[in-house]
Amino acid sequence: xPKILIVAGDxxxxxxxxxxxxxxxxxxxxxxxxxxSRKKLRFVxxxxxxxYDTYVxxxxxxxxxxxxxxxxxxxxxxxxxxxxxRAPEYLRNDADFRRIATHFxxxxxxxxHICHAAIALAPLGVLKGRRTAAYGxxxxxxxxxxxxxxxxxxxxxxxxxxxxAWPDQPAWMRAFVSLLREKAPAEAPVVG
Length: 192
Fold this sequence. Notes:
Layout: E1 3-7, H1 14-27, E2 30-35, E3 40-47, E4 56-64, E5 67-68, E6 79-82, H2 87-91, H3 95-106, E7 111-114, H4 118-121, E8 131-132, H5 139-144, E9 148-149, E10 155-157, E11 160-163, H6 169-183
Parallel strand pairs: 1-2, 1-6, 2-5, 6-7, 7-11, 8-9
Antiparallel strand pairs: 3-4, 10-11
């Protein structure tokens, strides 16, 4: 059975973690969560409130990581998912995150990223020349990383599928699951 890797950390966006995590399980993929260390991760929720110029942040759910980033052999995984939130701000500084993410792009394996995850990928040079969605405030980061910012709900560029934020998740995961079914089909999920 193909395995999917989700890289997250504290302050990852709650919905951008749980929606793809559960979709991968629903599709029949073995799904592992990696973070800077093995621990119970604390997520946040971002919401839009009338009168605010930006989003607000509230405490979200918790979920344990299965692996520390240092323990990950990316060759064991068929695809990578990177949720947004604030976690990408510090994940991009982690040498093991950089090693893992670069592997997926170098080997042309499917990668899904959403919202602020683009700020963790841009410094790696992997967005150069690629069409990429992200949260609108991250457009300068995408462009500084050589990418082409696209304001759309599901942008497919080769084996990369990106989206702006959690309201885009149905289109984002529909496109990613379609790519996975083509590149790394799962066994039929067990219905019990």
